Amino acid sequence: MIKISRAGCAAVLIAALALTVVLPALARAEIFKARMLTGKAPVEPPMINVQIEVTGWTTPDEIRQLQETLGTAGIDAFLAAFNQSDKGVVRFMYARGWNLPIHAAVVVPTEKGKVVRLFFNRQNWNPGAFQPVGRHYFMAMELKLNEKGKGEGRFYEDAQLKLNSLAETIEIETYESAPKLFPQVQEFFKKTGEKK
Questions:
Q1: Where are the domains of the chain?
Q2: Are 186 and 149 in contact (CB under 8 A)?
């Protein structure tokens, strides 16, 4: 006779509940896959795969709220509000990979496609590597895609963002070190979950 423990039942119920929360979010996610030049060969792999999962876009109202918080309450309150925002994750897909939470995500239409900008807290995305001291609080990714969802991108490891409530977007104002390059970027899913 098989005995089922209460702890085992609880674990199964918790796992099922977690799946009901995670799977719908992934179904709504826009997924971009990229290849990033690390600039660390021959010690590290010269190129790694990166998967970007955007589960939500920063709205013009959120941009105005962040700008108001920065202007009235200062940098600490702004950083607290910025950190509470969850817009997805960037996954560095290799042995020493890292999941980098996205705190702001904007998309800007262009004549021949779109530009996707993602913003993160500045942190070490490669746990085994040394991260030099930087001047700015943020990191940013910028993906330039054509109408077919293909293109290139850059990863700025020490960037300053600019909130532009008139244009209803967030921009990269400046950056310190040379960006990592994404020679290949491909969008895989639309928000509805349809394949491109």
A1: 30-187
A2: yes
